[in-house]
Amino acid sequence: MKSETLKSKEILESKPIKISGSEAVVRSLIAEGVDVLYGYPGGAIMPVYDALYKYQDQINHVLTRHEQGATHAAQGYARVSGKVGVAMATSGPGATNLITGIADAQIDSTPLVCITGQVFSHLLGSDAFQETDIVGISTPVTKWNHQVTKAADIPEVLAKAFYIAKSGRPGPVLIDITKDAQLEEFDFKYKKCEAVRSYKPVPEINKESLQQAADLINNAKKPLIVWGQGVILGEAEKEFNAVVEKSGVPAAWTILGASALDTSHPLNVGMVGMHGNYAPNKLTNECDVLIAIGMRFDDRVTGKLDSYAKQAKVIHFDIDPAEINKNVIADVAVLGNSKDTLSNLLPLLNNNSHSEWLNEFKALYDIEFDAVIKGDIYPEKEGLTMGEVLKEINIQSAGKAAIVSDVGQHQMIACRYADFSQTRGNITSGGLGTMGFALPAAIGAKMGDPTREVVAIIGDGGFQMNIQELGTIFQTKTAVKIVVLNNEFLGMVRQWQQLFFDKRYASTEMTNPDFVTIAKGYHIESKRVTKREDLSAAVEEMMKSDSTYFLEVCVEKEDNVFPMIPAGASVSDIRLK
Amino acid sequence: MSTKKSFTISVYTENNIGLLNRISSIFQRRHINIESLNTSKSEIEGVSRFTILVTMTEDQVRKIIGQIEKQIEVIKAYYNTEDETIYQESCLFKIKSDLLFEERQIQNIIKDSNARIVTVNKEFFVLEKSGRRSEVDLLYRELSVFGILQFVRSGRIAVTKNAMEVTKII
Predict the structure, then answer these.
(1) Which homologous superfamily does the CATH classification assign to the domain defined by A8-188?
(2) Who among A136, A143, A197 is closest to B21 (CB)?
(3) What is the pLDDT of residues A327-348, one digit of tens each?
């Protein structure tokens, strides 16, 4: 069969044509500029797959090995490219397998459109084969969801889905399409959605609040910026850099904010939160003005709220009104898209520097360096550390790579030590903490920006949660670099057991398979490193490889991640050991 | 801020399948009990109105409103205290007809409570009463002495003393 090629513009300008609902789905995707989607076929979505076959030169469907992998791949794609990620699955188990990725996208504000097949509409509610109420199931974890039972509704609903997923604070949308709606023919015409009357994606900027914010910043003696992913989602990196530099305010980041400002920037004072840096955590409770930009005061950031920044005036910039005063009361709230708010803030700011205040950060950094960082990155003990692997990756990538991490100790180490000199560089599961995220997300990240080096850093636990996606990587020849930091433990849980459960290592030690042999089974070039003298060359070989590469590094079994704010403790009580 | 009281939440929404689930899940997720919930059309064509009665702190209700308004198909949500609203509930009593003739006091209760007899037949009669919760509760207590075959009460419906300027939004 000859594959059709159509441009988005042609579809948008075309007169109505009579096609099936399933072909309408594919044409709608093309009209929205979708060039890749991730999914898994099955009975209730087969008509759409049949239509995809017809357009296969135009739209690349990546067959993941599990639907969870499809959502994480779509997330990786969205996070690197800024575009909407698309995942597709059949009804029933196919649809329910999407849920973890959808929940992850919801809490990390990642734009996704997920399309699920559904049983024939006359069978709805009859407990038909592979019927689940996916709209009901996905409601709490989607920004919007909708069931389509008539083909004629497909273009409008999909247009709305893309608009809602991407606009304002982004998030996942799920569209469930019954099989009869996929088969039915109708006159297809596509028009992009530009507004939904009950939905205001971007609040208007209040000039007074902005001026109040500027006054507070200009008069502050010890101001501290804590920025989050809102800077990246608003594509406001340039404006943010300008605000930081003009105001001279030290700036710290949440895990999802990483890479919006270069790691090497003199005003970048590191990561806040449970395993963040010593200085920004400690000094959160000493600053006089706390400027939160596009972040949501997650409990992993704030620790005990009753003793979080109580001395400071708080300014909160956010696009989502529901975030204001949710966890931390703001003295001044500035609503709006970060690009707009920051560019409007800039002219109101005085040129300033806070060198003495900045020296306090440096002094605390030195303490952290001696107590923690030195041993992590330049270890003198025999066993390999996760930190030194990151150091080697930094040498090779010069901060340009997108680092895709999973969840656990290796994630904290990756976020703490990876150098970032290009935005959208830190792809990780922040809010949900989804183990199994990184391997599929790395596939999407590489496809989202094929010119960029993508390095997945994964623990031995998380690697085995979606290890089947090695098959996807092999089939699509996606040139991701996969680093498994193997300590033969579920390391973060083991660390907590050591610190808070009297070393009772309940179900955290893992007897692992030979990962290198598994990778070889997928014909992926692979290597295992167990000694320090081999590490540097192995990382270099991996990073210089043009194809997929798997590197297992056997690290010390019982290393801990520090600093650490114990759960429920104040940021001031951050521990160095 | 930290004392719990009764709030009436009014939500103007698009009329879509699934929105009830979406709104109720906001309460469920936070382990908050909904005391009553009513949905109906509103003064604006095609726009539905939810009236939800909850007991919580003002800080909590403010956050709940934020989460409700965040839903795509929600046009606007408000919360009000008892003093800021005019509210009513309705109830129906099904009672044996014999009692109406045998127990003189029932007739007095009906008269005094401003309840209305909706229907009477040989077996039973149905009494309707609209009013505040306390009035409905009083009537219930008085009638339960004689035996109630069936009782049902509606959720609260309420209008606010102040204007709700929803038409300006859409």
Answers:
(1) Thiamin diphosphate (ThDP)-binding fold, Pyr/PP domains (3.40.50.970)
(2) A136
(3) 999 999 999 999 999 999 999 9
